[in-house]
Design goal:
This protein is mainly alpha-helical and 291 residues long. Helix content is 50%, strand content 12%. 33% of the residues are buried.
Amino acid sequence: MLTELAAELLGRCTFPPKGERLACAVSGGADSLALLALAVAAGCEATAYHVDHGIRPGSAGEAEVVRAGAERLGARFVGLRVEVAPGPNLEARARRARFDALPPDVATGHTADDQAETVLLNLLRGAGADGLSGMRAGRRHPILGLRRLETERLAHSLGLEVVNDPSNQDPSYRRNRVRQELVPLLADVAGRDVVTVIVRQAELIADEVALLDDLAAGIDATSAAELANAPIALARRAVRAWWKYQSAGLYPPDAATVERVLAVARGEVAACEVPGGRRLRRSHGRLVLEA
C-alpha cells in the first residue's frame, strides 16, 4: 500500500530488499502497525506476529485488531499466546515471554523516540558506551529513523484501528516517566528537540563502539599478559566479549566483574568469583574458568 506518505517515510527506513520475508512484531499500536504497513509498501513478504500474554483484560480483542490490520494491508498474520504467571516484574517477564515466542530475527517498530528513551534509560542505569549507542538501524529495527508522530499519522491515514495500551501511561514504569517527564524537560532546558540530538549522539557512539570492538578482537582474553598490557578500555572490552562467548550471553559481566578479571590477569590476586557460580583463576599465564 504505497501511499504518498508511505513513499516519503520509506526513504528513511532500512527494510530488506523487495521480495524478502520479514517477520514483524505487531502489538496493535501505531508504531508496529506502521512497521507492517511500510514493510508491505517496501515489497517485503511481511507477516504480522502478535503475542497475547493475557495479562490485560481484552487482550484477545487486540489480536483481532492486528489480524484485521494485516488483512487490510495484505500481510500474513500469526497469532501466538503465552502464559505469564502473576508476581513481581510482571511487565518485564511478559516482554521476555513475548520475545521468546517470536522468530529470532523479528523486526520491531522502535522509532527515533524509542531510541532516545532507551539511551536515557541506559544512562540512568549507569551503562557504558554499548548502552549509550542504543539500538542499531537495520533489518531488526527498520523504522528507527522515523518519529512517533509520523507512525501515528501513517496509521491514521490508512484507516487502521490502533490499540492503545493503558500501561503506557502508568508512571510506575520508568520508561513512561522518561517519555512523559524527562524528555519534555530536557527539550525545555535545551530549547530544542532533544530526541534528534540524543539519536545523533547514539550514532556517533555506535561508530566508536564498532572501532573499539575491532581493536579489542585482536586481544586474546585468555592471555594474562595481553590483557595486562593492553590499554584499559580495550582490555575491558576484550573481557566482556570473551565472557559473552563463554557464558552464551546468559551472564553479561558488570563493571565490578570485569575489574576482578583484570586483577587476576595483572597478578594482583590469584583467582576471583564470577557470575554463574563460577571461579576464574590464572594458571601458567592463562585465565581459566572453572565451574
